[in-house]
Specification:
Blueprint (H helix, E strand, L loop, with lengths): L1 E6 L7 H10 L3 E6 L12 E2 L7 H11 L4 E5 L3 E3 L3 H5 L8 E5 L2 E2 L6 H11 L1 H4 L12 E3 L6 E5 H6 L11 H11 L3 E4 L5 E3 L5 H21 L1 H4 L2 H21 L5 H19 L5 H27 L26
Parallel strand pairs: 1-2, 1-4, 2-3, 6-10, 7-11
Antiparallel strand pairs: 4-9, 5-11, 6-9, 8-10
């Protein structure tokens, strides 16, 4: 049996549609993990209120209550598409495979700025090889995958003690690294697709990007095995390069203005080429969002790199406010 686990705080706009899609995938158990009971929830779903807790703690509690040998983690704003389980489950016939992840694509009916956000994420200019998280690419083995579309073998989940509750976002990076360190494999299956609604405004998009950057910068020190990689430093290098050339041009350094103009022109051309398939209406806004995302991520990455500790990271011997002891995973 497959158990689908959906952590959330309260009833969400897209939850009902997502639940219907989950049950359309076949014989599955669906556990919904809200803070408090949700009235009028699909009766086929099993509801387990957790009290106030973080997403990782909710997933850990759901895993303990679930009956399935495969634990499928989704978000409350995702919707599995037909063929999702059929594509993912055959990978677990290989006993070395602990987890399977698939892309989370932007729904076509998302509002305009959400689709712009999705087009930016799907571009190679913003996401590099990790654009496979947002659009189907070639199958591969990976060592880091987001928990909005991640299926995990229960025995592997229990072997690493579930999700750590120190970080959000980033708890999935820590979890996947624990699997890899145990010798397990994580596979990317491009046909195991879910739809994932993007942030509906630029403010929320850039806040999300900054959160990713801050955590990845910190993780470059904390989890260098999967986060100390050149691709994650690139936005910061771009930011520093732009600022250095801007300062040089303002001080009258010879050819600094020309170099700045050349860098900006080349950047904009590459960004435009990376989102050309998004269509003419989304093209220019997406280029602007890619640039803003690089700058926001780059600055936040440097802040994370310089941080001694992230605000949500618990100190030794302390429990996170939102992660009560009874929500913690069993000891490995």
């Amino acid at each position: 049996m497959v158990s689908i686990l959906i952590p959330l705080r309260h009833d969400a706009r897209y939850l009902a549609r997502g639940l219907a899609a989950c049950f359309a995938t076949g014989e599955v158990e669906v556990l919904v993990l809200p803070d408090e009971e949700i009235a009028g929830l699909d009766p086929r779903a099993r509801q387990e209120p957790t009290g106030r807790a973080g997403p990782a703690a909710k997933r850990n509690r759901g895993a303990r209550l679930a009956r399935g040998a495969i634990l499928a983690f989704l978000d409350d704003d995702t919707r599995p598409l037909p063929g999702w389980l059929d594509a993912a489950l055959p990978h677990f016939e290989d006993p070395a495979v602990a987890a399977v992840g698939g892309p989370a694509v932007t729904p076509k009916e998302d509002p305009f700025w959400a689709r712009v956000s999705g087009a930016a994420y799907e571009s190679w200019m913003l996401s590099g090889r990790e654009r496979r998280r947002y659009a189907p690419t070639a199958p591969a083995e990976v060592d880091d995958w987001p928990s909005c579309n991640l299926l995990v073998r229960r025995s592997a989940f229990e072997a690493v003690g579930g999700f750590g509750t120190n970080f959000w976002p980033g708890e999935d990076t820590e979890f996947c690294l624990a699997l890899v360190k145990k010798g397990w494999k994580i596979r990317y299956e491009p046909r195991a697709v879910v739809e994932h609604h993007r942030r509906p405004s630029l403010r929320k998009h850039f806040a999300q990007i900054a959160g990713y950057g801050r955590h990845r910068g910190y993780f470059a020190k904390r989890f260098p095995e999967t986060s100390l990689r050149a691709q994650y430093f690139a936005p910061s290098a771009l930011l520093i390069g732009f600022l250095a050339l801007l300062a040089a041009a303002s001080l009258g350094v010879p050819r600094a203005a020309e170099a700045l103009a050349l860098l900006a022109a080349g950047y904009l051309l590459l960004a435009a080429s990376s989102v050309a398939r998004a269509g003419p209406r989304l093209l220019l806004p997406s280029v602007g969002v890619i640039l803003g995302s690089h700058l926001a991520y780059g600055w936040a990455f440097l802040r994370g790199l310089a941080a001694r500790r992230l605000p949500e990271e618990r100190r030794d011997g302390e429990n996170l406010k939102d992660n009560k002891p009874d929500h913690a995973p069993p000891s490995p």
